[in-house]
Amino acid sequence: MASIELDKVLDKAWADKSLPEILSAPVSALKGVSDRDGELLEEAFGVKTVADLADLKYVRWAQALATLGATAK
């Protein structure tokens, strides 16, 4: 299983939270995602939390395509 440095992907306020707390956090908990970005994601796709974003079919499709591209090299 891959590891992730939480302080590199989360705003400081969220880096010491538990995984369930992070998954239920607003997407603005992710470093570089503003509150306005979160509002736009909710308007466009109904995404409210980090877990919602991870489960968004378009994100999963893009990840699958990137994986296929990486293995095709």
What order do the helices and strands follow? Answer: HHHHH
* Helix share bin: 55-70%
* Tally of distinct domains: 1
Shape: globular
- Average pLDDT level: 94
DSSP, total strands: 0
Radius of gyration, in Å, reads 14 Å
Q: What does the largest sheet look like?
A: none
From the N-terminal CA to the C-terminal CA, the straight-line distance is: 23 Å
Name the beta content range: under 5%
Low-confidence stretches: none
| Broad structural category | mainly alpha
- Helix tally equals 5
Give the arrangement of secondary structure elements.
Blueprint: H1 6-9, H2 19-23, H3 35-45, H4 50-55, H5 57-71
Please provide a written account of the structure.
- The protein is mainly α.
- It has one domain (9-71).
- It has 5 helices and no strands.
- It is globular.
Quick recap of the structure?
This protein has 73 residues and is mainly α.
Keywords for this entry:
single chain, 73 residues, mainly alpha
